[in-house]
Amino acid sequence: MDKTGIHPGGEHAHVAAHGHEEHHEELGFWRSYVFSFDHKVIGIQYAITGLLFLLFGFTLMMIMRWQLAYPGKPIPLIGQWLGQDRAPMGIMLPEFYNQLGAMHGTIMVFMGVVPLAVGGFGNFVVPLQIGAPDMAFPKLNMASYWAYFLGGVTMLASFFQKGGAAQSGWTSYPPLAVISPGQTMWLIGMIFLITSSLLGSINFIVTIVQLRAKGLSYMRLPFFVWAQLVTSFLLLLAFPPLEAAGVMQLMDRLGGTSFFMPSGLVVSGKPLLISGEGNPLLWQHLFWFLAHPEVYVLILPAMGIVSEVIANNTRKPLWGYKALVYSVVFLGFMSFIVWAHHMFMTGMGTTMSAFFQTTTMIISIPSVVILTALLLSLWGASIRFTTPMLFALAFLPMFGIGGLTGLPLGLAPSDIHLHDTYYVIGHFHYVVAPGTIFALFAGIYYWFPKATGRKMNELLGKIHFWGSFVCINLVFMPMFIQGLGGMNRRMYDGGLQYAHNAGLLKYNVVIGFAAWGLGLFQLPFIYNFFSSIKWGALVDRNPWEATTLEWSAPSPPGHGNFLTEPIVYRGPYEYSVPGSARDFTPQFEPEGV
Amino acid sequence: MNIPYTVEERPDSGLANGKLGIWLFLASEVMLFGALFSTYIILRTGAPEWPHGELNIWLGMINTFILIASSVTMVMAWAELKLHNWARHRMFLIVTFVLAGVFLVNKYFEYSSHFAKGEGPWHSTFLAIYFTLTGLHGLHIVGGMVVMAYLIGPGASLFKRNPDQFVNRIEYTGLYWHFVDLVWIFLFPVLYLL
Q1: Which of A249, B107, B109, B122 has the greatest number of CB atoms lying within 10 Å of its CB?
Q2: pTM higher than 0.90 for the full model?
Q3: What secondary structure letter does DSSP report for A267?
Q4: A216 at B interface, C-beta within 8 A
Q5: Do B13 and A241 touch (CB under 8 A)?
Q6: Which listed CATH number (1.10.600.10, 1.20.210.10, 3.20.20.80, 2.30.250.10) goes with A3-260+278-552?
């Protein structure tokens, strides 16, 4: 690193001043906190925006859960404010229910989890973990945040247009998506979000390849960096086909083309005047070509965070680091050739189904290797049950349940029964909600001291964890029962009109109360987050006694990150080295110190 | 703050940051156009009949040669810059910019002849994919022209301050421009000839 990249201020000055550019050249408020090029500021911007979208997306679901638990009853508290065209007299309209469903998925995936996991943690942690002064392209980094922000604003604004937001599900299958209102804004928002991911992923790959500190070879990279590297390749190569598909759907809506519109469509009793000859399945192929790798975009950074937290709190090296690395690379590669397992029911043919169910079974192998390696890392350890560790530990069984319940969906014969039921919802939420989102909480509690110089409150953290853990399982476990009983996932009234659902409706009330309880248990987190910025216990550089490079920088790191050029002497997880005086030997410590 | 390897190459990867960045960007572009070409194949194989002779092959061929020529002048602009022949570098870069403009003018005549007949993208699946593919390609041409205009105009002063970085920028612009050219080399036979 160049000498000019070193911040002139001392470590204590940083801590006192909350570590921004005061001592450097004078940057105004706007350049320091809003239009900043600094990867740490951009990372925090991404993280906070992502958290707000997660809260918003979750709120949409809490409203939907009222309608499912008590179909046709006025929504309490907020029902009267939703407006006549959404919920007259507080009773939800089916169109509004569909909007909430479509936007819940879109917001959680594209505006909540990915920006927090990749934009937030990736931006903040990756340059610090590889010993870089910043990302390779700081201006591009800012551009990608603002593209994301614009995409988010577009999506939110779509609720207020005539006809409301998109209502064809987050998957936006045509022909429905082409003829239903709200979709145009969704597509425009998606193009902003895709642009943001594209710029971000290029930046991450270049940063990791080019800006690693002296001595930091690939096999000395923390596993989190590996996970981010593979994730970036997935974003880079999987998103463009969806962009192409988005452009074509936009053409179908605005330009009158028929890419996804077959001949002979009749809408509301009138034949559609279009040229026809399009192919609705083509959208599904292009969509899932993105959206299956996207599943791994959601899960790989989470695995990376969990690995860091587990190694730190077991005080042991990760079990099978090399196996983890090879698995994550193989997983990334395989994720490109499993997409059509979402389409077994489309009639695409048994040859296709056979191919894609085979690749789907193969991709479960590296996932199991990673989970097993993390589980074995716990063996014989004297574990520190800190709040981040509790979330990381919970990730293992939660992701395990999510993964194992996916196997019957990956096999075409059993998928025929389970497809489009609540079982599917239970399955993928176990992967991303108590899976990924718990890992993200682990990451927030773990790196909060690095970002702010203060620790979050442990007691509030434990209340947050145990409350969330119990509630979230009560939300998703009953969905497996409902799904196996055949309850369809898209019913506006929760499936009231079908006789076979009669015994399953009671779970809708259980799930509803669990979801609202889950909402309440986020309050300690929100309070803890903001109050700890001001009143949390002050920490030094390395409060968790960790080994990776970010802990050699001041907390919080100043502009340019490191006070002296970081040099790496060993692998990332040298905990409890025999013969060593302490139970951790950081990467940045020379031999014989 | 200085980011390492913005101009010089990192020894172990043999690349400067920008070069790796532009190659990654081109990889994503391959996926973008790849998806559109796949769409073309699927729509065409699924169609009961596929129209022939709707496009003016001569105009398309002229445009093909224009783009190939612009790729050559782009390389020349970079080579002359490497030799520090500033005047000849600017001449070749401006010629590249003008050729790109001529391509778009040609394209305008092609488009307007379709619209004059009332045959826009809504007319048939063939014209839908034709307008989408060439439209996106045209946007890439416009993007390239914006970058070239910057490097001819306000961006040229970088050569005095940091000549190596300016040479790199011309090289990356060239890589992008060859890609845009290459896409057209695929588009021409697929849309006009086959």
Answers
A1: A249
A2: yes
A3: E
A4: no
A5: no
A6: 1.20.210.10
